[in-house]
């Protein structure tokens, strides 16, 4: 049993499988008899010395985390700046680590978190404090560099493809006398990965979704409306998937077109709502839209088995890396082949991942800009393959585990950062 | 083998399990060697003599319909008026029935469809045409009279409860530094059945959803905002479920508060978007909202086993009724006990169902108006119990069946109604 404590923290938007990574981390550490603390609400908990003692969790609770969405210890949106600008915060982190004998720090997040983990490792080296920092990949946006895909994305992608297929069957059945145009808004502020995944819902020329709007392409409203109308005339209805991050030629987010309602109240924007209004005004078709919002990133009931396997694999690998003293690295997914799909975990330096953003390759978007290519299908399909249904209770709901975890007594003065 | 043809048609909004009813109808009729025609797009297909010959469907296709959402033959929103006002349409229906030797008419829909089926049976009797009309219940709104519950509702209710629970875990994990208020918009223009089902997502005092807005109660904005703020202060975040049909004291639908965006374009309304804007303006909390729209009624991937069983049972019973000559009736679900849940199918006259609407009993809504009671839980829980996942393919998507069905050659002149 190595001396010291492992600290695990979750960062940024949660996913359907980030707790599966946590579960794998806890299992791997227990197998090596390494005690694990978790920071409540991510790095904020580390700064506040608000730590949770996972030794109180039963084996069944840890196993249950693997099928529970959300973030078991809480997450946060807090980006630390440079070592110079946020010096006091980084030093506070080290003070907390020292106070609890934290020798391994696992930070489960995206490219911002990779940057934080990297900087913490640099400061520890500067102070001569023996600390191993390991990033653990997580994001539904699939925008991390180096790794072939990001745990969290596959399940959100599966949710998106299945939901769009189901809605399309609904619209197809009703279009003659009811809704002709249906618009589904997918998350993705900068990269259209989830919108692309919706493309898996259909395969034939006139299968839904008929039009996909990517943030990688400039949104041309007149062209879009003409295409919607043409699809309605040809197919009888039109299913549109719109990335929340689409922008017009002047760089304005379409989603930011919110205005005031008739009482002068703020009306919040949204791509789908905006497009629906334009379709109604300009084309006169009956239109419906859906905004799944957090449903798409928390739908553990429809997780992808591939995604779940990868989420757990990076958790296990992170513990192994850390205990082996591999500092400032992140376990990443390497794809060996598309069909049959084979992958393995490799280790990459955080410096190659921190603050970078991977957008969709150009050859994943069809030439006309409104659909995905065969190459995109080859890439995406394995990521949504396999089902990993959670156990359900006799009350008809998934047996999600929300354990109450014991806080660790504070050893330092309160922090007022 | 009885002489004649059975005509089956789907009506109104589709559900996750209306095709399961269709599947059961086709199986039961085949077992009795009765040929089945289906009207394309509901009663509209019957009027147009646009009929489909289900004899071309394989047994595997019919079985597959039971796990496929949407409406296999198409549905429609078309309410026939009184026998006097729409006389020509009713006579046309009879003409089509005669031309194709239709002796049994099964109309799968809600209270409007029950009314149509009843009127057709009356006209047939007046003309001395031997026809047996049977309504088959279907609606996610759960607002049909007589029956204890409606096939289609249980699956939409399960989707709602699971989705709200999943989103609540997401918000709970992020609330410290991100979204504090989350609003989920549920279908239900007149009755809050689906919003009530969301209440199953939590059980403890401070479990999400914290506030449910029912169309059965007047929406008081100031009271609502004060409660949201109180929950955020006490719990750290607040999950709201709002029925699309809530109204203010003057009878105005909250959802109709749409306005214009900054470009003067129509901005479509929506309860969740409106409430989100008010929370942001009045309380300043970061807010997100979800509008699942058709996802909630087409999510076959999350169907309730109880709902599926009942959808198939009413389909089988409808065929048995029809062939036994029980005219102007509808198979209904009778609840024998809550725990353990037992039910059976009974037969009720259409006259007791047509054009009626069942709202939620008053004692299902908590006294403060913002939650459900233990009685509501006892009623709702069995309806979402059991999982009936569809088979999934190696592409990660459900194997939904969309058979191409042979149209029946027309025997009458075209209809210009």
TrEMBL record, chains A, B:
Provide the residue positions that the database annotates as binding diphosphate: 13
Q: Where does substrate bind?
A: 139-141, 187-189, 244, 294-297
Q: Name one GO molecular function term.
A: diphosphate-fructose-6-phosphate 1-phosphotransferase activity
Q: Which residues bind Mg(2+)?
A: 111
Can you give the residue ranges of the Phosphofructokinase domain? 8-321
Q: Where is the active site?
A: 141 (proton acceptor)
Q: In which pathway does it act?
A: Carbohydrate degradation; glycolysis; D-glyceraldehyde 3-phosphate and glycerone phosphate from D-glucose: step 3/4
What cofactor is this protein dependent on? Mg(2+)
One GO cellular component term, please give it. cytoplasm
EC annotation from Swiss-Prot or TrEMBL: 2.7.1.90
Tell me where it resides. Cytoplasm
Feature type site, description Important for catalytic activity and substrate specificity = 112
**Record entry for activity regulation:** Non-allosteric.
Enzymatic reactions: beta-D-fructose 6-phosphate + diphosphate = beta-D-fructose 1,6-bisphosphate + phosphate + H(+)
Enzyme class (EC, first level): transferase
Described function: Catalyzes the phosphorylation of D-fructose 6-phosphate, the first committing step of glycolysis. Uses inorganic phosphate (PPi) as phosphoryl donor instead of ATP like common ATP-dependent phosphofructokinases (ATP-PFKs), which renders the reaction reversible, and can thus function both in glycolysis and gluconeogenesis. Consistently, PPi-PFK can replace the enzymes of both the forward (ATP-PFK) and reverse (fructose-bisphosphatase (FBPase)) reactions.
Q: Partners and quaternary state?
A: Homodimer.
Q: What is this protein called?
A: Pyrophosphate--fructose 6-phosphate 1-phosphotransferase
Q: Which organism's genome codes for this protein?
A: Thermomonas hydrothermalis
